[in-house]
Amino acid sequence: MELLDKLNILADAAKYDASCASSGLDRAGRPGGIGSASMAGCCHTFSADGRCVSLLKVLLTNFCAYDCAYCVNRRSNDLPRAAFTPRELCELTIGFYRRNYIEGLFLSSAVLRNPDYTTELMIQTLVLLRTEYRFGGYVHAKAIPGADPLLTRRLGLLADRLSVNIELPSAPSLALLAPDKGREAVLAPMARIREEISQSRRELALYRHAPRFAPAGQSTQMIVGATPENDRHILSLTQGLYDKYKLKRVYYSAYMPVSSSPLLPAPRDFQPPLLREHRLYQADWLLRFYHFRAEELLDESQPDLDPRLDPKCCWALRHLEFFPVEVNRADYEALLRVPGIGMISARRILTARRAGPLTFEGLKRLGVVLKRAQYFLTCSGRCLEGLRVNEDGLLRHLLALEAPAEPVPEQLSLFDPAG
Fold this sequence. Notes:
Layout: H1 3-13, E1 56-59, H2 86-98, E2 104-108, H3 115-132, E3 138-142, H4 149-158, E4 161-163, H5 171-177, H6 183-206, E5 218-224, H7 231-245, E6 249-254, H8 274-289, H9 294-297, H10 311-318, E7 325-326, H11 332-336, H12 343-352, H13 360-365, H14 370-373, E8 377-378, H15 391-401
């Protein structure tokens, strides 16, 4: 098979993996080498369907020994199969990099033969890339659940970030749709990666030339909408992953119908829950940067996120006793709870008010989104002049601010000349 044909097949097979990011690592290029890694990420993109990703995202192979019902690469699916050799994938990566198409590689794979064999092939690829080709750019590698811990450690010493996909939000769903996988098989490598990262950081604190294990951390991905778990269950799981395994990111992938299995939603009647995925990402942002907890956002009486409003506005409407917040006295934590105030604008408020009392006009200049924040703030004990609204009216105003969803653009092929 021609290399271009393999690339078409294996780049298209990788498009369902959303846990692809290049931020979080800063490494200068080395004399005689090629490439570097920037904390700001990459600006060039390539994926089979034209989506904006920062890395060359491909599978090493889509031959799979597993038969997961939700996966397009499952063993029982009749589709074109291909596999890169380590040399082919290295040549492709370096060729794309030299053309300024990419700045790094996202390497995943279906399970060829068994997890150990697949991981060994991935290690061979990265050893070639790092040593013979002297590539210093960003590499994100998928750790294969069930592989020998020593192989996973070797992979982590070659890659900048590792990820282990948790796939589905609950053990019963995983047992039903992915009988070849188990929850413990996924969580065990997460725990080992966490320990290896901690050990590596301790060693680097003592000796700066010590080997670096996955310096950009680890992430995971779960599929949303293929199984009946509610948003509360998903966010509680996410909170637990952040707390216990110190993950950098949890990615949510709206289920795309790729199977006619009776265990999954029927393709004809099913629409991918893209808005739900969007709300989960907004809630995830609150967990990671705004010091919210999962149990604050959802509870038994309201187990799902409101599709009409972002999660921060929903929380504010349910906790009106917290407001209004006096902008000239509130601490950083309280400011972060106000809809329309982000991390940057909250820090600007803390700095600016040292010079004197802030006004609503001053808040606008600091970057506060007043069309949301005006309902929840006071400046020197006063509300915005002329603002009169009750609880029902507040909900109507916030709903009116939600912009309609933009149409999804037609996806482009990787090799479409119009792209």
